[in-house]
Write a structure and sequence with these properties.
Elements (H helix, E strand, L loop, with lengths): L35 H8 L1
């Protein structure tokens, strides 16, 4: 799965991700977690 970073478009609402995802993994537009599925996939 793709890892989203600052400057990419949010996969949920399409707004530009403003904060670095290592500091805040929530979108400022919709409030949803951006890289939640990738982190859980790596743990398995």
């Amino acid at each position: 799965m793709r890892k989203y970073d600052q400057g990419d478009l949010c996969p949920h609402c399409g707004l530009i991700i403003m904060m670095p995802t290592d500091l805040s993994n929530q979108c400022l537009g919709c409030g949803k977690e951006i890289n939640q599925h990738q982190e859980s996939d790596e743990d398995e």
